[in-house]
Amino acid sequence: MSAPPPLEEDLRAQNLDVLGGFALTPGEPVAGLPSRGSLVLIGPRDPGFWDAFQTTPEWRDRRPDPMDRWSRRVLEAVADTYGARAVFPFGGPPWHPFHDWALRSGRAWVSPIGMLVHDRAGLMVSYRGALVLAEGHALPASCEARAPRPCLSCAARPCLTRCPAGALSSEGYDVSACHDLLARRPDGPCMQGGCLARRACPVSAGYPRDPRQSAYHMERFHPSCP
User: Any residues with CB less than 8 A from the CB of 127 and at least 6 apart, and which?
Assistant: First the structure.
């Protein structure tokens, strides 16, 4: 029997990418199971993710939570190929500590506005799931790469000043102020193209997320009232 293709190649075929990973401590419980392997964080691969996602059966059937259902189907299939276990940031409780895992990967940090910032995706980083690989399965090469924290060399820090509601600052996230602005400006740039503070990040600017995808997530975050 031929060997399976590399994990990163399989993920790219689904418009997904490895966004970090780390070796687990022997016996460390993950997803309720003791593990001696490694954990790989998975997120959208751009450009192209949104166009590809809109061709999927989960998007076309118009049932609720299409992206979560698609993520589960695709990542569980990839997990089966590698004898791994797929875990997700949705579907809890229990809720898996994706925020902590991202920090542990060495490729994401807490930004000046409190959100995670990734070395490649900037403030647009999102995780669709993770794979818990068995002991002996090597981490993808991209998990070994370590980039400097981008905020350390960002003198302007536009994320702190770009929010038109002033909802994102070094003091934290004022959720009510954010929703108030979105309610007053349903056709504004935040609803139509995603959070302006996240897009203002210089690293985000180099990560070509489709504005339609951001608009979709904003609609889930702040649904229109009938």
Answer: 19, 41, 42, 43, 89, 98, 102
